[in-house]
Design brief:
Layout lengths: L15 H14 L12 E6 L5 H12 L3 E5 L12 H11 L2 E5 L3 H10 L4 E3 L7 H15 L6 E5 L4 H13 L2 E5 L8 H14 L2 E5 L2 H5 L4 E4 L11 H7 L7 H4 L7 E4 L11 H4 L6 H20 L8
Parallel strand pairs: 1-2, 1-3, 3-4, 5-6, 5-8, 6-7, 8-9
Helix pairs in contact: 1-5, 1-12, 2-12, 3-4, 5-6, 5-12, 6-7
The protein binds phosphoric acid mono(formamide)ester and norvaline (NVA).
The site of phosphoric acid mono(formamide)ester (CP) has 9 residues, from α2.
């Protein structure tokens, strides 16, 4: 059987989304029960971009499971330049039991997975951020007690985080409305794939250019940076294009009175979100950050304990 990877929530087999969320909750409730789950196993962590949360949660997470991490930063490998992705994948497969990769092009993690004999986990690409979305749905479940029918307003850039939230909504039957300025809508292919997935769960996936319309009646208001990693040259143009999409107290007033505010972080206070909102009791941004740890431990156990995933 080919080894399983975690590249996109869209690829999860039926039942896997909830299996992972339930395992995450068990790990969070009783972490010591999993202290030897990946004893002696090594995780290579490839980063083409900077990170705080992803690096720390994977490194601490694998250690809490009895294993250890090897950090390979942007200067280390020269992925696709000093050495072809195919060779990096095959070399690492001889030494480690899993690979976590944060890359610019999504195709790079796909190629790593194609040639690796061990599981590959997507730690963010320009297209998707699936570990983030899994942690976000766990956070919504904890705060709202349900996911099906939950109304999520995503306001801002139709980026990697928006894409993975759409795929997550499709898995759990949530109703997500993505509000973006013209030209910054989610990728049309991803939108279509998420809508196709949604047929099974009854999820609703909408796109609008009106932030108020998106937020009206929302249980969750979510935003992300206007300038994702790799888009720095467009910063000035983007700040202008997104100016009307700031999540501030005025916009939050359209949401349900018990709505929560979410952000994957890092945030830019005074740009996509005001201090007032992120510091308010509605803000659950640090719960999201904590849940990255629990969810990724579940993903690592699920993948790195599978038969045939133990080459090294
Ligand atoms: N949310 C997130 O992935 O944070 P980092 O970029 O710090 O890893
Ligand atoms: N959309 C952001 C997410 C950072 C965690 C980026 O890609 O930079």
């Amino acid at each position: 059987m080919p080894v399983r990877h975690f590249l996109s929530i869209h690829d999860l087999p039926p039942g896997a989304f909830w299996r992972l969320l339930n395992l995450s909750r068990q790990i969070k409730a009783l972490p010591m029960a999993y202290a030897y789950a990946l004893k002696g196993k090594a995780l290579a962590m490839i980063f083409e971009k900077p990170s705080l949360r992803t690096r720390v949660t994977f490194e601490v997470g694998i250690q809490q499971l009895g294993g250890f991490a090897v950090y390979l930063g942007p200067q280390e490998i020269g992925l696709g330049k000093r050495e072809a992705v195919i060779d990096v994948a095959r070399n690492l497969s001889r030494w480690v039991h899993g690979i976590m990769a944060r890359t610019f092009e999504h195709e790079t993690v796909v190629e790593l997975a194609r040639y690796a004999a061990v599981p590959v986990i997507n730690g963010l690409t320009d297209l998707l951020h699936p570990c983030q979305a899994m942690a976000d749905y766990l956070t919504m479940l904890e705060h709202k007690g349900r996911l099906a029918g939950l109304r999520i307003a995503y306001v801002g850039d139709g980026n990697n985080v928006a894409h993975s939230l759409m795929f997550g909504a499709a898995q759990c039957g949530a109703h997500i409305v993505v509000a973006t300025p013209h030209g910054y809508e989610p990728d049309r292919r991803i939108l279509q794939m998420a809508r196709d997935d949604a047929r099974v769960s009854g999820a609703v996936i909408e796109v609008t250019d009106d932030p108020r319309e998106a937020v009206t009646g929302a249980d969750v208001v979510y935003t992300d940076t206007w300038v994702s990693m790799g888009r720095e040259a467009e910063a000035a143009v983007r700040r202008e294009a997104f100016a009307a999409y700031q999540v501030n107290a005025r916009l939050m007033a359209y949401a349900r009175p018990d709505a929560i505010f979410m952000h994957c972080l890092p945030c830019h206070r005074g740009e996509e979100v005001t201090d007032e909102v992120i510091e308010s009791p509605r803000s659950v941004v640090y719960d999201q950050a904590e849940n990255r740890l629990h969810v990724q431990k579940a993903i690592m156990i699920d993948l790195m304990q599978q038969p045939g995933a133990d080459r090294a």
